[in-house]
Design brief:
about 100 residues; eight-stranded antiparallel barrel
């Protein structure tokens, strides 16, 4: 890399975003593309995105459109809530069994 490198820094939203359970993983790439995996299905959805302030517009490769907004460092993408990879909240613990209910197998 030279000292004359004038490449702009990537947008702060570029990187991997994941749901709290890690099932959905959406990578915003620096070239304005995204790649979304769901479970074991890699590249389940791919397409382009544009950012205007904290708002993101998506157009997938089939023409489907969606929107998202980043609020307090959390990406709200349609009905999904995504966190920066490694910053998702701890998964809620399973509730303790109710001791008043009989155990059934």
């Amino acid at each position: 890399m030279s000292t004359n490198d004038t490449s702009p820094a990537p947008h702060p939203y570029v990187g991997m975003w994941v749901t709290a359970d890690g099932f959905i993983r959406q990578e915003l790439l620096p070239n304005g593309r995204y790649d979304e995996a769901r479970g074991s299905r890699t590249s389940a959805y791919t397409g382009g995105y544009t950012v205007d302030g904290s708002h993101i517009d998506y157009v997938d490769d089939t023409g489907f459109t969606a929107t998202g907004d980043v609020r307090d460092g959390v990406l709200h993408h349609e009905h999904l809530v995504l966190y920066r990879e490694g910053e998702q909240p701890d998964r809620p613990a399973q509730p303790a069994p109710d001791p008043t209910r009989p155990h059934t197998s």
